[in-house]
Every structure is written in structure tokens, then in C-alpha cells.
Design a protein that fits this description.
The structure holds two protein chains of two kinds.
Chain A (H helix, E strand, L loop, with lengths): L16 E4 L2 H10 L6 E4 L9 H12 L2 E4 L13 H14 L3 E5 L2 E4 L2 E7 L5 H18 L4 E3 L6 E2 L6 H12 L2 E5 H11 L3 H7 L5 E7 L2 E4 L5 E4 L8 H14 L4 E4 L7 H20 L11
Parallel strand pairs in A: 1-2, 1-13, 2-3, 3-4, 4-7, 7-9, 9-10, 10-13
Antiparallel strand pairs in A: 5-6, 11-12
Chain B lengths: L2 H13 L9 E2 L7 H22 L1 H7 L1 H14 L14 H7 L9 H16 L8 H7 L1 H4 L11 H4 L3 E3 L4 E5 L3 H7 L15 E6 L6 E4 L4 H9 L4 H10 L5 H9 L3 E4 L1
Antiparallel strand pairs in B: 2-6, 3-4, 4-5
Helix pairs in contact in B: 2-4, 3-4, 3-6, 5-6, 6-10, 11-12
Classes of the chains: A alpha/beta, B mainly alpha.
Chain lengths: 298, 264
Amino acid sequence: MPSPNHPRVAAQLPNRAGVGLKPEHIDTILADRPDVGFFEIHAENYMGDGGPPHRRLEAIRSLYPVSLHGVGLSIGSPRPLDKAHLARLAALAKRYEPGLFSEHLAWSSHDLGFLDDLLPLPYTEETLACVCAHIEETQEALGRRMLLENPSTYVLFAESAIPETEFLAEIARRTGCGLLLDVNNVEVSATNHGFDPLAYLEAFPLEHVGEIHLAGYAEAEDDAGHRLLIDAHDSPVRPGVWALYEKVISRIGVQPTLVEWDNDVPEWPVLHAEARRAERHAAKAAAADRVGAFGHAV
Amino acid sequence: MPFDATLDAFVEALADPSAPPPAQTRGREGRPDARRFAVYRNNVAVGLIASVEMRYPVTRRLVGDDFFRGLARAYVAGNKPRSPVLIHWGADFPCFIEAFEPAREIPYLADVARLENAWVEAYHAAEATPLGLAELATVDPERLGELRLAFHPAVRLLGELRLAFHPAVRLLRLAHPAASIWAAHQGVSEPRPPVHWRPEDALIARPHADVDVRILPPRGYQFAAALLSGASLAEAAAPLAAEGVDPGPHLVGLIEAGAVTNIR
């Protein structure tokens, strides 16, 4: 077991591809020490007091930068943030010195309890103020700037009055937080709501992006027979998402990029190959001429 | 609609599978869409069911995937986590199994689940360094050989000592041979039924990285439970001594299992 004082690699995430850390891969990773930019962990999986999860994460952290990704803070809820949960997140951030911390523009807890899903919220002046207050409280508790991730959604709300990209831009402006651009979420939401993903990216405040997420989706249909994409994280990144990713990279340069694969997790070599593929796409896009507006070289 | 009311309606519809999608949600046709909303309902159920499956793998194997999914679905419907830390959620699932009518035919199922829950709790418990037998010698070198006599009223010093336990330690009194059943399901090979069908007492500990499950010998539970609740060695040993049972091996057994961190 590495001691807590075991020398660690630097905390900062390189502009490379990383993958979500899965328990079933850790022994292989520690034995083979594959060349991976970073590992991302779901914060809530490491909120036990001790034992093998922390021992193994200490070992990983000594070899690789880590990013801390919360899935349970419920930032997009009108209810006060869970102070105990904020304290747990702050303790994890202190212990593992992650290169960055991110959470979602979503809610997951209400009177019924914790619902274990990233649920959508309407975009209004009221919800904007509420989300901003929660982000400020989170940044204060963790003593660092956080990144907020754009959601994938299946429904919109009648009362929404602010476009999502504008909502995110205003949050970044008011709170100073950065943004995590999930390109798969853009593809999923664009398909689900019938908008152009390139137009969304055109309107997205790309200057605040500090990390990119990529993943695979599942497919279904809605009541009217429209194609409905589900953010399943259970398969390879799709061609359309790679194409959007290249457009983003050609616009803002190479970014720390995470391949998320949380369900039907493949063997390590498959996941590792997906991360290497992301780096090839990024290198190709970065080598091409910088483009101005999406799709139009200048 | 105010933010809070929108989410109240959303949650109400999530909780009731027969409810229509919330009125203020919109699909591509500009109206509520049942299939779209069902994705959220399904995500909530599937995510929480997966957590229960992960915590109770042997229980699941004993009843099969389909039965277990029904059991977990019924549990999840009425027992939402209070915290987003799901590694701590699902401890009362064994009690739910006991009251679940279709599971009554498998009377040992709840006991196996109890053991699995204790295993997960031990897995996530805080770190501590277990006391080794060699360190016991340094605690009281001249008396180690007299362990057998240590509980004699004349040897007051050792008898007054109390044990500090590792935070991972869990003691279970099982009405069925659930520890044997659990152990038989650890490999991939076809499990054999227990040789002896009788109640078992189990000690769960995590001496180092790995969780360890031991079946306690007769009277081991009584002795360990007394010490765990703060009794001195003399107090814990008295009932055993009264029956002419040597408590020494029980103490050594607890230390060998890595359950003890200190004697003071």
C-alpha cells in the first residue's frame, strides 16, 4: 500500500485523453502502467472511510493525474445543497489533489430522496440565480474553481425562457466557473430536440471549456416516432460525435478529454484504444487549419 | 410555474409509473411525451437496482437474475437513498427480503444478504493496523504463556484489559448456515450445499486489504460480542470459564483474524 506521502505525479491534467477509472481495470493498470493522460473518478464511489478503494486510488494517483467528477451534488435543485456532501467532496479534493473538479447542470435529489439520475431543469431567471448560488457555494467549500457540464436531456420545459448555451455562459460569467463540454451530450440533445449541434457549439461559450467528455449513446423512439438518443455510456463513441469533437478541437485547441464508458464496461485494451483514438482525432483536428465559424475555414 | 413546483411534479410522476408525463415537460411535438419521460423513470430504477445488485451478488446468484431484479425493484420503489453516497445505501435490504412474501421459500436468503451487507461495510471501513500476536507478547510478555490462566481472579491486571476493535469488524448471528453458503458461492465452480445445516456465527474483519469472513467456534460469538460492547477480558471470559471453557483460544482467534487493534 502506498503511504499517503508517496510521491505523486503533478496534479494538472495534460491536454491528452483520459478514461473513467473502473474497479475492474485497476489491477491491470497498476501492473502495466499504460500511457494514459489521466483517470477520472466518480467522487461518490470514494466516499467510504477507507479500505481497498482508497488504497487503490492512492496507488493510481501516485502514477497519474486524476480528475474528480461529482454525480450527486444536485446543483440544479431549488433545495439547499447537502452540506455534509460538500464537506465529503472537499475532503476528497484535499486528499487526492485532483487536476480539476466537475459537476452537472442537473438535479438528482428531492423530497423523495436521492434519485441516482441527472435530471433536467427549466432555464429561467429563477433557476439561473439558484444554480449560480449553488456553484458559488461549491467553489467556496472546495476552495477551487469548478467546471459545470452541459446536460443530455430527453424533455424540455414549457417555462424555459433562456437557451441552454446562454444559460451556461451566464453561469460562467456570474460565478467564474469553467465548463465541461460533453460532446456526446450535445449530439444526444440536438437529436432529441431537433436542433443543429453545430449551431449549439457555435453559441457555446467555448472560451470557458476546461475539459471535454466523449461517450457512446443508445437509441430509442419517442411517442411520435422521433429518434431518441439515450446517454448510456455503454458503447464506443459514434462517428458523429468524433466529427463534432474534431470541430471543437480545431476551434479551441487540444483539451483534456475523457472517454466515459460506465455500463457494459469493456476489457481494458478496448477502453485504452478508445482513449488513443481520441488523441488521434485531437491531433488531426489540431493540425488542420484553425477554423472560425464551425465548418467554415477562414 | 415556480422552480420548486416544477420539480415536485416531476418527482411525483417519476415515483408513479402509471402517471402521465408532467404537464410542463415538452417533447419535439411541443407536448408531454410518455416515452421520453419514461427514460428518466427507467434511469432512476435501473441505477438504484444496479446498486443493490452490486451489493448483494451471492443473494442474486441464489435466486437468479429475474427474481432478484423483481426483489430489488420492489425494494427500490419504497426505499430511496437519503444520501448520494450509494456505497452506504441498501443496508436494510436483508430486512426487506425477510418481509418479502415471494422470498419466504428461501429462509436463508436474508441471512446471506446480512453477511453480504457486513462484507461491504467492512470493505469501506476506516483503516487501522491490527494487533499481531507478536505484539500481544510485547503488551504483556511474561503473561502470554499464561493466557489460559489470565482470567483467573488472581491475574487482575490482564483481566481488567479491554480490546479495541478494528473499524471493519462485524459480528453476525445467523439462523442458517449462511456463511458456508456464501463461501461456497465465492468461486465460479458449482457450489455445494453446506455439510451441516445449522446456525452459524460469523466474524467479518479486514486485517489488511482484503475482507475476511470466518465462522466462529461455539461460544466465540458470545465472547467477541461482549468484548465488542466494551466488556473487560475478565467480564467476557466469565461465562465461558463458568462452563469450563478456556477463553484463551477465543482471544487468540480474534487477534489472528486481525479484529483487534489494541489491548489496554
